[in-house]
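Task: sequence design from structure.
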């Protein structure tokens, strides 16, 4: 067993004032199948870059073997897949590529196709196959489930679970993490937390700890108020007694100023003791809830369509070059329904969404859209975002204050509002598109893989939002937990 040791590591991006890591200490066994979780912007990808030597901070990192970060950039997507994947593999090991591809559900024929001709899911699995060929390095895998369908996710999880070595896996897919990890590293607000167990084990412990801290915090708030009132009342009594030393006579007798002064001092001492207990309770309270991820309630005000059915497809299939991308489907979408499109990569899910949006695509069968239908759309990709967020909001016709409010509730730092969107993480860019969609009042919300790169806490916020306001939705999403919770029906293409 060997260890990666991180000592007193600090890192801040150029031009930024907020450290991503400050005095970070970690010991990671390279035999662990380690899941890495945390909010968007908490430093998951940055940690992988630091371990891979792609970024440099203050402090020391000791690595027993080179750390290899996935995904690696593809220099020329027009090259054949075989040539790309075998770039760093000795010729005598080339035979293993077919074996790794087969475990990931890819046929040998993809090796002769240009890399750019593969679907997003095929590209992901091909690059993972090349990663698994490298036995001389510690694999670090960043968000492999994006663009993978359910079958692809299961295949990749099984491959990771079956590896005879450890890895570091950053992901927000709860079911995927549970399927292939045995340790969890969480990047919390106050620092890292490392446990033995899968995501569900960590999440169960976190929920129990959060409940305990919330209950203790509530009790302390009441205790602090009670102590504050008692200290104030006792101090007032002390002042009143002290003043009575000079208040004249009682029953013709002179006031015993020594006795009164002693009594006043005892009351003041009691007041000081109450204040001390209050300060101690305040200190204890301030140590609580620092790692509780606050998921403020999101709001949505969908429009009610005055008619009935919003969409109806009959024997519908998108066809390119006279060939259908998937099987013909028949479906209806009624107000309040949330229809999840399912199917493998390349079966035409995104194309069907584009038809629903009103795009002119070649197809067979018919699609009827309700007249006057207002649609709010979240596209699959967000890497086109750049420039000023306020300027972008104005160009999109989105209320800036409302957009910023939603983003803040999604744990979006205020400092990001002034930053070029091209500098955002992939998850932060996707949150901008989701927040803009929530700003738009619509009859129908069409979301294409909305959770790519989105942290698990924000996923849960979106689940609660959808269940509370019940918008009509047509969506593609491969996160099984999310889909099973919010969907009212599914359609397999």
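Answer:
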């Amino acid at each position: 067993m060997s260890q990666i040791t991180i000592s007193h590591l600090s890192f801040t991006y150029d031009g930024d004032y907020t450290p991503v890591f400050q005095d970070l200490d970690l010991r990671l066994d390279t035999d662990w199948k380690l899941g890495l979780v945390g909010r968007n912007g908490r430093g998951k990808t940055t940690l992988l870059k630091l371990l891979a030597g792609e970024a440099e901070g203050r402090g020391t990192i000791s690595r027993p073997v080179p750390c290899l970060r996935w995904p690696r950039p593809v220099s020329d997507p027009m090259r054949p897949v075989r040539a790309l994947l075998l770039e760093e593999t000795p010729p005598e090991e080339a035979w293993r590529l077919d074996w790794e591809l087969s475990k990931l559900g890819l046929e040998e024929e993809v090796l002769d196709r240009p890399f750019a001709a593969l679907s997003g899911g095929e590209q992901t699995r091909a690059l993972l196959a090349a990663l698994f060929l490298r036995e001389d390095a510690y694999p670090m895998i960043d968000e492999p489930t994006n663009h993978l369908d359910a079958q692809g996710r299961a295949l990749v999880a099984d491959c990771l679970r079956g590896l005879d070595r450890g890895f570091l896996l950053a992901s927000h897919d709860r079911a995927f993490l549970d399927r292939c990890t045995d340790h969890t590293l969480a990047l919390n607000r106050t620092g890292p937390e490392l446990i033995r167990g899968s995501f569900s084990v960590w999440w169960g412990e976190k929920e129990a700890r959060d409940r305990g801290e919330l209950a203790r915090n509530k009790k302390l708030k009441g205790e602090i108020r009670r102590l504050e009132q008692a200290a104030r009342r006792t101090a007032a009594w002390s002042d009143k007694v002290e003043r009575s030393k000079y208040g004249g006579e009682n029953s013709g007798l002179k006031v015993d100023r020594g006795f009164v002064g002693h009594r006043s001092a005892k009351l003041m001492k009691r007041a000081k003791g109450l204040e001390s207990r209050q300060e101690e309770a305040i200190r204890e309270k301030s140590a609580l809830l620092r790692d509780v991820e606050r998921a403020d309630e999101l709001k949505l005000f969908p429009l009610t369509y005055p008619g009935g059915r919003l969409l109806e497809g009959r024997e519908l299939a998108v066809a390119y070059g006279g060939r259908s991308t998937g099987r013909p489907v028949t479906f209806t979408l009624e107000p309040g329904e949330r229809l999840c499109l399912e199917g493998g990569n390349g079966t035409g899910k995104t194309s069907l969404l584009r038809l629903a949006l009103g795009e002119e695509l070649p197809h067979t069968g018919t699609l009827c859209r309700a007249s006057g239908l207002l649609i709010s759309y979240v596209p699959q990709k967000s890497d086109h975002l750049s420039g000023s967020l306020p300027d972008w909001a104005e160009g999109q016709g989105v209320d800036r204050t409302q957009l910023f409010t939603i983003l803040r509730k999604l744990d979006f730092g205020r400092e990001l509002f002034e930053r070029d969107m091209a500098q955002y993480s992939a998850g932060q860019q996707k949150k901008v598109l989701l927040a803009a969609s929530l700003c738009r009042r619509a009859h129908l919300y069409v979301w294409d893989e909305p959770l790519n790169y989105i942290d698990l806490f924000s996923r849960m916020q979106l689940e609660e939002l959808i269940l509370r306001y019940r918008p009509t939705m047509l969506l593609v999403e491969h996160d099984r937990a999310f889909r099973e919770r919010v969907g009212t029906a599914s359609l397999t293409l």
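The chain has 14 helices and 20 strands.
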